[in-house]
Amino acid sequence: SLLAVAGWDGTTTSPSALTAGSAYGNNGGNITIGGGSGNVAVGSKTGTTTLAADDLVLSAINGYAQVGYHGGGSGAIIVNATGDVTLNGGAGTAYFAQIGDGGYQVSGSNNGTVSVLANGNVTLHAGSGQEAYAQIGNGGAESNSNSAGYTNTGAVTVHGNAIALNAGSGNASYSQIGDGGYKSGQSLNGAATVGGDIVIAAVSGVTLTGSAADAYAQIGNGGDFINTGGANGSSGTIGGNITVAVSSPAVAENAVVEVAGTGANSYVQIGNGGNGENTTGSGNTVTFNISGNITVNDLTLTGSNTGSDGYAQVGNGDGAHSGTGNVAGNIAISQGTVFDLTPGTASGTSTGIQNATGTGSVSGTVSGYTATNTAPTSDPTTAGSVSTIIQNNTTPTSFTYTATSTTPISGPSSDFTAGGSVSSAPTPLEKLAGEAEDEDTPSDGVANSVGNSLNGNGKSRTVSKTIIPGVLDEIMTLTPTHPHGVPPADEDYSSWGNEALWRW
Fold first, then answer.
1. Which residues make beta-bridge pairs with 163?
2. What is the mean pLDDT of the chain?
3. Is 246 exposed, middle or buried (0-12, 13-18, 19+ CB in 10 A)?
4. Dist CA 207 CA 123 (whole Å)
């Protein structure tokens, strides 16, 4: 085991008491990892690594800076700070900052728990170098490449005042709390297990901000293109329950804020999985399962206007619908929560509170949330900036569908996209969306339809549509309380990255 204490009180000698009470962090006693010449890793392969100080700073100026074993390790990591915990990625390739076992392009399984408890702020700043990531969790960019099978598990706990995950300006300079990482497990030829429960507790707020190409921000296990290029027969799981709680936000909807970046694949997500997860080569068959329950309170989600697949999501899987895997898990949004959803205008930049996949099945429940707008606009050209119609159920709203595409969907899409032929007569919303020949429906008909649906007077309907001939068909049964998107008039899907309207 390894123990480092800064700001010692001068009297406490018991190892167990050195990281409790006022025994550490006195007189501005800080610990800095990195900042000098070369790479620095402080950790134990099998024992516990404990650091206690006022501020802890990981500074990847001249190489990587890591608290944890550089490679495959099983030791637990404990960080206690009376002040701030800051991780700064650097300007060079793979100048990463990480609290966790693993590292850039290392091999080996990891299963130690990671705990970061701070009275101040916890900030992850990825760098300007390529793959100069910042991460709290096991794994790392391109770790376990070409593996015959690996395990990256370990529960992750982070407490702080404000918790911020900022992706960097370098390509694939991501910011993540959770196990995995960019292209972790690529070219897998075996079985992989990634996951562990994640608990985030903040006082004032949690923010996730994307940036450059593949510079994503994520609270969850997985990562951008995790297990990509798997060989035929490869399999695995990505899972773990996720809780994100903010006790005293200054503004309700800013308790949790996700803003996608400007580059391609600069998504932001609270959930397990990630963009392009588990994709495989042509003709190969792989089996992956992504799961975990998610609990979060007030939030704001904003998709990218310039970077394709820069989605903003609360849910498991892949909001750009380009990944592979069966996705499950329940999403609970605290009752009375306020949220604001603003989809992007680039392709694949939807915003949503939902599980999603490209190829595979999706199931789970979404319960208890309230949007900032109580009715949709009757003008499809402005609906892209309108939040979802209110959904404040006291019981969960179930959703389930099966995606059959074998190639990534290039256009914007949603789990709840519907259109084409239905078993009942077209509603005013369908006429507005171009699903019926009658285009003379007045706007008050739309209002009546929305009102009826919110009152539970709608009927269950079976919906089917060919999205991409010969590639993607969608079939679903919609209940009166089943939210789903309606594309704008005369289009199969919207041009601004999310559906124009919602209905039940």
1. 122, 206
2. 78
3. buried
4. 10
